[in-house]
Amino acid sequence: MKITAIETHVCHARMRNWIFVKVVTDQPGLFGWGEATLEWHTRAVAGAIEDLAELVIGEDPRRIEHLWQMMYRQHFWHGHGIVRSTAISGIDIALWDIAGKIADMPCSQLWGGPVRDWIRTYCHLGGGHLEDFYETSVEDARRFGDLASKAVEDGFTAFKSMAVPPTMPVEGLRPVQLAEACVAAMRDAVGDEIDIMVDCHARPSPAMGLQFGQALDPYGLYFFEEPCWPEHLDGLVMINSSIKTPVATGERMIALTDFRDLFAQRGCEICQLDITHCGGLTAARRIAALADAYGIALAPHNPQGPVSTAASLEFGFSQPGYVICETVHEDVPYRNDIVSEGFHVEPKGRLVRPNTRPGLGIEIDEAEIRKHPFQQEMPQRVFYPDGSVGDW
Predict the structure, then answer these.
(1) CB proximity list for 261: less than 8 A, separation 6 or greater
(2) For residue 67, which phi and psi values (nearest 5 degrees)?
(3) Which of 41, 129, 277, 301 is catalytic?
(4) What is the pLDDT of residues 31-58, one digit of tens each?
(5) 78 a catalytic residue
(6) Residue 116 CB neighbours (<10 A)
């Protein structure tokens, strides 16, 4: 059995271009789907996939670990840069889809079988709609409350918000008070039975991240995400040790050694590895084993397309430390036209029951993808009041 082609299929999705990776074999009808979506780097990732293809075309798709090592270690530069690692991820996910199809079982069965009966999911405030999630002003606390109520009406028992504004390295009380007012409005709107997450998007410095974390502690957040740059490991450690709310991070980390250092120094309680960036399911399973050794939970980053979601769910059904799955459902109206999924989502509670189809359990409609060709992603630029550059 040999790999005969690696194809990229790009589908515009407003903020992102979904990059679907199709690995084709010489066995009639046997192929796998992966995803390598990376905002604002679509052409770079597509090129990286083309570069990697020469390493794996002609190889046996069943030798997944061997192929991963080739993609990561050959071509001289190791594959822990974000573009190449994302390209590796897309191919690796597709290889696992093929493996499940060969074995005629879901991927989670390949990794020892399901460890749970269902997976809980959470949404973005606004269901992933760009303007609602990213552009609702923190000066409009009532809007945060209204969108929180809508998430609950949609059946979710947990949702994530961006209630922390961009801030300079040190600021006064106003941004902290605005964030607190937004969280208070959401808590008042949904009560104590619903879990609320706050994503800082690594906007604050460690000093400001600590201020936000301490101010929001009384509201019983499910987790406090990316309170500072992931490069500031000492800052993450300081914040995580100073607040009651569990700190979540990891979506921008790639190398296994970076996760090792994060866990060993206790920079978080929840690991948000991104399966489409960290090296695919092969790398994700290694990171999960490390997290398990430190008693750190898993809640993978997953605001991408439907193949990423399928991969995250299959991964979640096989991992004891997996606690919740990030999902997007209202980013583009044609999401469900692109994919047919083998898992079932219960409207009440938004619980996912296991996939029963082989591999990732998905079918992709290539004709629908072609209806939404590449368009440049919507730019997101942040400047502070003095004109200096901030983090989005």
Answers:
(1) 233, 267
(2) -70, -35
(3) 301
(4) 999 999 999 999 999 999 999 999 999 9
(5) no
(6) 14
Strands (E), 193-257: 195-199, 223-225, 247-249
CB proximity list for 201: less than 8 A, separation 6 or greater: 162, 164, 225, 226, 391, 392
The answer to whether 9 is a known catalytic residue is no
% of the chain beyond a pLDDT of 70: 100
The domain in which residue 73 lies consists of 3-105
Residue 189 lies in a domain: yes
Residues 53 and 128 in one domain: no
CB within 8 A of 367, min separation 6: which ones?
A: none
Whether residues 125 and 90 fall in one domain: no
Query: 299: alpha, beta or left, given left = phi > 0 and alpha = psi -120 to 50?
Result: beta
57: Cβ contacts below 8 Å, ≥ 6 apart: 3, 4, 5, 6
Residue 371 domain flag:
no
With respect to residue 347, please indicate whether it lies within any of the assigned structural domains.
yes
Cα–Cα distance measured from residue 167 to residue 174, given in angstroms and rounded to the nearest whole number: 10
pLDDT at 126: 86
Torsion sign (Cα): 159, 165, 169, 173 = negative
Phi, psi dihedral angles at 127 (to 5 degrees) = 70, 15
pLDDT of 128 strictly over 80: no
Q: Does residue 373 lie in a domain region?
A: no
Q: Is the pLDDT of residue 130 over 80?
A: no
Q: Which residue out of 9, 75, 201, 232 is catalytically annotated?
A: 201
